[in-house]
Every structure is written in C-alpha cells, then in structure tokens.
C-alpha cells in the first residue's frame, strides 16, 4: 500500500513517511486491509487532503474516527457517501446550520462541497475496521494527524479551528492561539446535543464572520 498525499501537503509532511512510527503504521494498515474489511476504501484514506489543498485551507474541523458501517466513510470527518443515511452527529450538524445560517437541511451528507471550499475535515485516525469503532487507534495515525495540526499552526495564519467535544478540544495545545482562531463547543452527538452542549453554538455564522473580517470568502455551508 502506497500512501499518496496531495502535492500541496507533501513538502509539509514528507519527513513523516520515513519515520519508524509511520513505517510500522503502514505495515499494520496494509495487513488490516488484506485480512479484514476496513474503511474508508484505500483511495479515500487521504481524501481530506485531496479535496482541501494546503494553500486553500481556511477552516479545520477535527473528528476522531471514520464511520465503521458499510459504505459510510469517505475520508472526510463527519461526512458520508452520496445516498447514505445521515448518522446522528451529522444530522445535528445540519440542524445547527439550518438554525444558525438558514441553509436548508441537505439531501446529501457528502461534505466534499465544504472541503473544496477550504475546510479541512480531518479525523485523528484515518482508518477503521468494519463494525469496530476505534480499532485503528493508537497505531500511529494520531502522531501523523497531530503533526498536521502542528504544522498548520506553524506555517499558516488566521485558520479557524472548530473543536467539538472533549477529544477535539485536547488538540488546542497543538495550535498557536495568538495566530489562529479556536472555537469550541460540545460534540454534535445526540448524547452531548441533548444535554445542551451543541445546539446554539453558532460556529458556522461565527466562522463566516471571521472569514469576512479577514477579507476571505465565507463558506457556503
């Protein structure tokens, strides 16, 4: 298995591919994809980077793990393939957008349309076994994606990081808050949303306000 990172990201991350942890990760993932059903499909593992190029990145949303049901994961956090039933967290994201900026609830749960506008939809772990949530955690992906966040913080300015839930909030330590914007809230999962930690965060209108204040194109959510 050869991991192909889009050219715009390669110079930023190329050193990682020669690190012992990444070589070990590659061996593990290769064997997993041979022995088991894993998601997303191999060509989509780096889809977040394929759709949001380094020079275009304006917003970063951090998820934890790909969806582990058949046909769901497409390499972008919270996103599902066309025609797939929207998972509960995605439903709550779309409901908040509807309340916040008035965008009608969409038919498609495929968030490539966001990524193509400069939203990096980054899962901390980029692969998973079918029906086994968290099965590829602590194998090296987190080291890689933490480095992505750190490098983004160092190399760019004025990014908007949306950190939803306890796991994502821990990534704030990797981000220079003097150079970037960090918006935090509860997770859009039903457990958190039903306790009042998600709805009303207005992250989507806040993000667009910040972008416009910095003379950048707002996101069409």
Walk me through what this model shows.
By secondary structure, the chain is an alpha/beta fold. Helices cover about 35% and strands about 10% of the residues. It has 9 helices and 6 strands. Strands 3-2-5-6 form a 4-stranded parallel beta sheet. A two-stranded antiparallel ribbon has the order 1-4. β5 (about 160-165), α7 and β6 (about 180-185) form a beta-alpha-beta unit. The longest helix is centred in the N-terminal third of the chain and has 16 residues, at about 20-35. It is globular. About 35% of the residues are buried. The mean pLDDT is about 95.
Secondary structure layout:
Blueprint: H1 7-13, H2 20-35, E1 38-39, H3 47-51, E2 59-63, H4 88-101, H5 112-115, E3 119-123, E4 128-129, H6 141-155, E5 160-164, H7 165-169, E6 181-185, H8 190-193, H9 203-213
Parallel strand pairs: 2-3, 2-5, 5-6
Antiparallel strand pairs: 1-4
* Strand residue content: 5-15%
Helix content: 25-40%
Poorly predicted runs of 5 or more residues: none
Total strand segments:
6
Shape: globular
Distance linking N and C termini: 34 Å
Largest sheet: 4 strands, parallel
Short key terms for the protein model shown above:
two-stranded antiparallel ribbon; 4-stranded parallel sheet; alpha/beta; 37% helix; globular; 221 residues
Task: Briefly characterize the structure.
This protein is α/β, with parallel strands linked by helices and 221 residues long.
């Amino acid at each position: 298995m050869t991991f192909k990172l889009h050219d715009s990201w390669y110079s930023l991350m190329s050193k990682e591919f020669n690190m012992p942890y990444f070589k070990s990760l590659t061996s593990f993932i290769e064997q997993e994809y041979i022995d088991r059903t894993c998601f997303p499909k191999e060509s989509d593992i780096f889809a977040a980077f394929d759709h949001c190029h380094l020079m275009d990145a304006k917003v970063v949303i951090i998820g934890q793990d790909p969806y582990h049901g058949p046909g769901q994961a497409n390499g972008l956090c919270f996103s599902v393939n066309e025609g797939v039933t929207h998972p509960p967290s995605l439903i709550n994201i779309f409901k908040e957008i509807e309340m916040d900026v008035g965008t009608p609830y969409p038919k498609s749960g495929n968030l490539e349309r966001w990524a193509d506008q400069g939203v990096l939809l980054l899962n901390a772990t980029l692969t998973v076994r079918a029906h086994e949530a968290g099965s590829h955690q602590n194998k090296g992906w987190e080291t890689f994606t933490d480095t992505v966040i750190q490098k983004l913080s160092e190399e760019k300015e004025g990014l908007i990081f949306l950190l939803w839930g306890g796991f994502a909030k821990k990534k704030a330590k990797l981000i220079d808050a003097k150079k970037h914007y960090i918006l935090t809230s509860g997770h859009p999962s039903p457990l958190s949303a039903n306790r009042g930690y998600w709805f009303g965060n207005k992250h989507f209108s806040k993000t667009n306000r910040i972008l416009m204040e910095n003379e950048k194109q707002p996101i069409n959510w």
